[in-house]
Specification:
Elements: H1 3-16, E1 20-26, E2 36-42, H2 45-61, E3 68-70, E4 77-81, E5 85-91, H3 92-98, H4 100-105
Helix pairs in contact: 1-2
Length: 106
């Protein structure tokens, strides 16, 4: 799957799970690890874990490689590395504190 297709896939799956404030961030030329990030918020720890679990399940069904998953225990901030796209599923408090959109758009 090409990077743009993968980005669309991630956006669609986050939307399926009613993620809040879904924001794609283009990091080409800013990161040597990935092409894009998608940041979204969950309404609770359970919601963030559910969004992340659904994304992982659907990615596996689609035959995609999951390079890493971090943060599923607490559900405050779950990171899913899909190679060309890294998904960040965050609680509002964590998202406000770390301000990834601001960090990567600079």
């Amino acid at each position: 799957m090409q990077a743009q297709e993968l980005l669309s896939f991630v956006l669609d799956k986050m939307d399926d799970m009613k993620a809040k404030d879904i924001t794609p961030v283009d990091v080409k030329g800013k990161s040597n690890v990935t092409e894009a990030m998608v940041i979204c918020s969950g309404t609770s720890n359970r919601h963030t874990r559910s969004i992340a679990d659904y994304l992982v399940k659907e990615a596996k069904k689609a035959g995609l490689s999951i390079l890493g998953i971090e943060g599923t225990g607490s559900g405050e901030w779950v990171l899913i590395d899909l190679g060309d796209v890294i998904a960040h599923v965050m609680q509002e408090e964590s998202r406000s504190f770390y301000q990834l959109e601001k960090l990567w758009s600079a």
